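Hey,
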Amino acid sequence: MSNDNIPTAPDTPLALAATHEFPDQLTPVALEQILPAFYRAWLHLRGAAPPRSAVELMTAQWAGEVAWGEKCHDYNVGNAKAVSGGAYDWTFFTCGEELTLAYAEQLCAGSPLVQVVGQYTMNGRAMASVRISPKHSGCCFRAFSDLLAGVTDHVSLLERRFPAAFEALWSGSPAAYAHALKLGGYYTAMEAKYSALLVGCMPRVKAAADQVDWNSLPVLNDYEAGNVMAVAAMADEDLQAAMIRERDADILERDLEDMLSWPLKADPALFG
């Protein structure tokens, strides 16, 4: 599909422009493209070549998240969510989530864009499969103008927001990686299902990785290097914003607890 409608800034690093909404477009990516892209982005970000296990696990995750690149939207290789008007460019597209039934019903009551499409029980809890449609905030995703920006953000996201999962990349274990991602809240699906998905993708990923001449991959040119560092700066800004949101949420929760602890009857002395 043509990318003519995707905004770009050819003379400056893409991530330095003011953020805005992208049109939702499929940007298909081939397995032979994603492997070297992850390697080159990692090498420039960290100053050292990634372990092959890390490239393979991130690629297996890409394969599971976006159907081997066929359902990749705006070069978001890991289906990372965004906040419209936040640190990232964004787009909207329909997605599915696995939520507790109580939370799903709460979302449905608040918006016709959220629908329960299935119910089941897991570990004694009532669960629901949910479809979220544009432009609900629950289906707002990060958007990028090219593949290098997308893979750079994925590496940066793992390192900054999911450090346990980032460490698991060295293990080469899909189960360990899936477990760490689940504990960090990366996905809402059942862990066993997500892990099995990664395991199933690994043989094809490893076979493709065997064909890559890792030592002959080109280094980034100045323009690519500028974009990589700009995306990394965006990731830092997003992390700081998330920390502020979490801090404010904690403050609000404490304030509410304090309010609930107040006596139900006011002390007359307070009013003279």
